[in-house]
Amino acid sequence: MNYRHLTPSMSLLLAFEAAARHESYTHAALELSLTQSAVSRQVQALEQQLGLTLFRREGRQVKLTDVGRLYQREMSEALGRIRSATLQAMAYQSGSGTLRLATLPTFGSKWLLPRLHDFYKSHPGMLVHINSRIDTIDFETSGIDAAIVVGNADLPGLISHRLHTEELMVIMSPQAAKAHDAWPPELIGGQTLLNVVSNSNVWGEWFSHHGLPHRMMRLGPSFELTSHLIQAVRAGIGIGLVPRILVADELANAELIGLDLPFASQRSYYLTYPPRNEMLPSLIAFRTWLLEQI
């Protein structure tokens, strides 16, 4: 197979990608500091090399064909990876680097960010860009290098490092805690139980763990973010079952009361990323630092 035929020159690919993104030779030419005719010639040369019609000409406008749109999607991702690899190589040479990290919003604000200054002390030339995500990360299209997620097992096709098991704690406001001198598990059933949408079965697991019938549960409002649930507990709306590490400050400051009814869930926190990112200098540095914090 002639691989050279399947590897067009970068100038042709850049012209196509810009023209496809704008669906305009004029705008592509302005972006690339070329003339409109030069962009047109490069796109035509690419079409001839591939034997494909990538654009339809409609008067003075150009529109992507179906195969052109498919090629644009794949080529945009490939060029993005090339740019990322180039930046990482340059960063490696200079001792600096950038990491694009996705993390759960509450974990990021309550656990990661208060510790991140220690990372910067050890790696002053590096930058960690934080993206809050609660949905599944698509590493192919999102531009994310690595993610901190919570789940039941390693994710297929990705490299995962288990950080720690999710230890959950029943929390309530100081005012609510005054209702009883002691809080055995049986008393929890009479309370308004707040939950997070992404882990809606957690109270059922807790009741089963303590041998209590599920009919005792009185489920209350649900929240998308754990941080919102914590605020609702502080406001006295109900009681929550949350990871202990996310309420350490509130417990220390007596803003919340934690009951001595520990429960290890079936989930764990993971640092995860695609295999192609394993040797990124910024990820190596962050991964080493993060695993030392656990």
Automatic annotation (TrEMBL):
Which processes are annotated in GO (biological process)?
DNA-templated transcription
Q: What InterPro entries does the record point to?
A: LysR-type_TF_proteobact-type, LysR_HTH_N, LysR_subst-bd, WH-like_DNA-bd_sf, WH_DNA-bd_sf
Keyword field contains Cell membrane:
no
Instruction: Enumerate the GO terms in the molecular function aspect.
Output: DNA-binding transcription factor activity; sequence-specific DNA binding
Residue span(s) of domain HTH lysR-type: 1-65
Q: Which UniProt keywords apply?
A: DNA-binding, Transcription, Transcription regulation
Gene3D superfamilies named in the record: Periplasmic binding protein-like II, Winged helix-like DNA-binding domain superfamily/Winged helix DNA-binding domain
Q: What is the similarity comment for this entry?
A: Belongs to the LysR transcriptional regulatory family.
Name the record gives this protein: LysR family transcriptional regulator
The scientific name of the source species is Pseudomonas fluorescens
